[in-house]
Amino acid sequence: MKSFLAIKPKHKIAVTLLTMILLLFGGVLLERHFLGKLNQNSVSIYADRLIPLNFVYQLSDDLYQRRLLISEKSYAPKEVDQLLQNFRKREDSILQAFEKTYLVQEEVQALTGLKQHFREYNSLENKVVYSATGKQLQTLDDKLAVIRQDLAALGNIQYRVGQRIHENNEELSSRAGLVSQVQVVVLLITCIITQGFILAAKSIIPRMTQKHNWN
Length: 215
Prior knowledge:
Layout: H1 2-5, H2 9-71, H3 77-100, H4 105-130, H5 134-204
Helix pairs in contact: 2-3, 2-5, 3-4, 4-5
């Protein structure tokens, strides 16, 4: 402390300003880090949660439409088969797009099970199109119920992960706000200390003595 007091006033000002500037610079970097994470999480909520949730809805709706086609009597079996093939192609595209999003481990497992159940359902569906029996239809409905459970599980995962991201965003926003407040305090302290040094420096400057001419 004594060594600091022994430093010349202009040097004290320089050291103080440099220290405060470094603190402000560090605060800016930290705030940018928090805001960057906040933006990244916001993008993730849309790209990795809302869009996949829409995928879940589309797959569920397609399955419902496919099951109606199986029961439709106004179409020939070949027409039904062609329509089902179109549904399957679209569903394959949806599942591929789903896999390209960010997936937590729980989602990976659920999606793997869903794809397997889709393959089994497609195989059963092929048999039912041309020669449907009561037992085959019941088996198809049972497999359909399993797929719906898979889709519901995926939807729940999307909600839980999205909720965690939202909570993390609130925490990051709070931290960024705290850093901003600290920056304002540091800036005020810098102004006060600098002004104090300037006033102290002026007080120790010797006044010029006025010379009197003696006649």
